[in-house]
Amino acid sequence: MKTILILTSNDAPQFKVEPIQELHAVMAEAGYDVVYPDSKCDALKLIEQNPRVAAVLFDWDDFGLALCSEISNLNEKLPLFGFANQNTVLDVSLTELRLNLNFFEYHLDQSEDIFVTIDQGIRAYVDDIVPPFTKALFKYVESNKYTFCTPGHLGGSAFLKSPVGSVFYDFYGPNVFKADVSVSMPELGSLLDHSGPHREAEEYIAKVFNATNSYIVTNGTSTANKIVGMFAAPAGSTIMVDRNCHKSLTHLMMMSNVTPIYFRPTRNAYGILGGIPKSEFTREVIEEKIAETPNATWPTYAVVTNSTYDGLLYNTEWIKKTLDVKHMHFDSAWVPYTNFHPMYQGKYGMSGETVPGKVVYETQSTHKLLAAFSQASMIHIKGQVDHETFNESFMMHTSTSPQYGIVASTEVAAAMMKGNAGRRLIENSVERALNFRKEIKKLRTETKGWFFDVWQPDTIDGPDCWPLKPTDGWHGFKNIDADHMYLDPIKVTVLTPGMSKQGTLEDTGIPASIVSKYLDDHGIVVEKTGPYNLLFLFSIGIDKSKSLKLLRTLTEFKRGYDLNLKVKVMLPSLYNEHPSFYEDMRIQDLAQGIHKLMRKFNLPEMMYHAFEVLPQQEMTPHQAFQRVLKDQTEEVYVEELVGQVNANMILPYPPGVPLVLPGEVITEDSVAVLDFLLMLIEVGKHYPGFDTDIHGAYKQDDGRYKVKVIKR
Ligand SMILES: *Cc1c(COP(=O)(O)O)cnc(C)c1O
User: Which of 191, 206, 563, 590 has the highest local Cβ count within 10 Å?
Assistant: First the structure.
């Protein structure tokens, strides 16, 4: 925080120039960089693009309130120092602006005094933006205390006693180790007791995220989900789980002795997870599910993935009002930013007021789309719970030695999102995503022959979450409910050719897995690859250069594809793994070969049906897991799965959601599930390197897959 901007007019009279020059010298002496923007516009750009700007000095007579208002819009806390001619009326009390503004007059020989005030202002600013736990941690590190406690590396010094340890130490630098401190520092409080600065951090986060209470979780939303589920669903109760859930919730069901019933989402033609229809939240449908499930009673706890993996957000206001379940949990691992832009209003767990008689939980992977260390996660609660009991569940899943670096980064992520500076970050992400979407559409009209498409309404305007309307065709869903689901513009799904909106496979096509491998070879990692779609996330770290690189690489893929280059050239990594198979193959042959297989199996239909029916629950995941622990399992080939009780969760990736859960049986009614699995295996057999990763199924030497089932 060592940059100071000075904004004066170009033709400033000498009585203004001289004092500023004098002040400049003092500031430079103290180690500040002084920058002179050309204009107001230039100054605003500098502030926006350089968060290290620590203060702005400007001529009040020329720039005045108009400048202040625009700076406040970017960062209402930035210290501003207006220099005015003595005669100016300094009346800003009339405005509503939130400002950090001080005044000086143009005087010679006072620069030392003026600088002291400016320097104090900058220090106060830095102190103000650093949140409480982080501040306490910095202070602790600065105090350089000599400890005899854990961690054993003692501020890094243990590493320095070993050659490899020193290499490791040098890679990270000293502060990582100094800030990795033991839980026995009373001045930092405790995460497990929620005391001291840890408590302040959680209170700060709750305020920023509009929650009644928030908890910092240092081992991911995988853990946050289990903490909430274990608290909200006692043994013997029934829980209602989104079938498109993260595997941490399957693990919850294996750990807790509960009976699950499922929300059944739909899928569209593109294989995009469509979210849960409105009817699934109604009393009638839930009662039907209870009647079909042995030992099920009215659920005490329900969990919904919001947003879905493809960026669909629900009308959470409607769900909160309609779903008659006391503990309502939104797994929002992918959307920790919804509280910071008005377009998400009414579409996330902590939005709006407390619902009488209900408790709403929202779990978020702070590390996934905000800036925080891996595993940083938050639980937000709206409503009243017994915090002592909740904390038992929290501690059950939390190490007694949490990483303070993760705690601090979770808190800093919240601090970054506060106020106008945070809103701007989200606005910029949205803007970048919108520009990228527009570029793809533009290239599509300008390019000869085929080009990629993007999954979005036919006309998009402004930053908004786009509703999936029953009357619209673009989304490809059958029977979608009105006012129920919305597409988050930050989640960009790019479509490859080959599949129509109605879900039929065209004569030719380019399966997305090929494009994904190409991008990977060019240093671009795709978030998720579907059959004919690729998902990209425009998180706050994405800048213009990254977005341009993605566009350029997609264009280069098209060029190479149209020239029908060899696989060897287009996909070198794939070639290197299977050189003899791909030696002479060309890219179009590979694409059409896989596409033909998809057509042969009629992939869209198959996928739709595989997720339309659920296998039958013969025992709960908990009971099945107990059998596994007692070794009451055997292995069978996947083809022989019908009628067997599955022991593990079977989860093909993509799409990355469980297809069969422990304790479930694929029956003749649900044989589509098996057909889908067999098709995934078949594609991998024909084209090495294109195997679907199937969690819970084990590839044998003969290329067939086995799964674990419960012994009869
Ligand atoms: C990633 C994810 C999780 C788990 O979060 P981690 O922070 O990786 O532990 C939970 N739920 C959903 C929906 C996810 O996508």
Answer: 191
Same domain membership, residue 308 and residue 177: no
Within 10 angstroms of residue 569's Cβ, the number of other Cβ atoms is: 12
Residue 110 lies in a domain: yes
Could you give the CA distance from residue 396 to residue 251 in angstroms, rounded to a whole number?
15
Q: What is the pTM of this model?
A: 0.94
99 shares its domain with 214: no
690 domain-assigned: yes
pLDDT (tens digit, 9 = 90+) per residue, 337-362?
Answer: 999 999 999 999 999 999 999 999 99
> What pLDDT digit, counting tens, does each position of 388-409 carry?
999 999 999 999 999 999 999 9
Query: Where do we find the tokens 């449908």?
Result: 285
User: Domain holding 231: CATH number?
Assistant: 3.40.640.10
| Site to substitute for ligand 1 among 308, 332, 365, most atoms within 8 A of C-beta | 365
Tell me which residue range forms the domain holding 538.
426-597
pLDDT in tens, 498-543: 998 777 899 999 999 999 999 999 999 898 898 899 999 998 888 8
* φ, ψ at 278 (rounded to 5°): -55, -40
**Nearest-5° Cα angle at 410, 197 to 358:** 90
**Pocket lined around ligand 1, Cβ cut-off 6 Å:** 220-222, 225, 246, 248, 305, 331, 333-334, 365, 377
Tell me, yes or no, whether 125 and 192 share the same domain.
no
If pLDDT is split at 50, 70 and 90, which confidence band does 646 have? very high
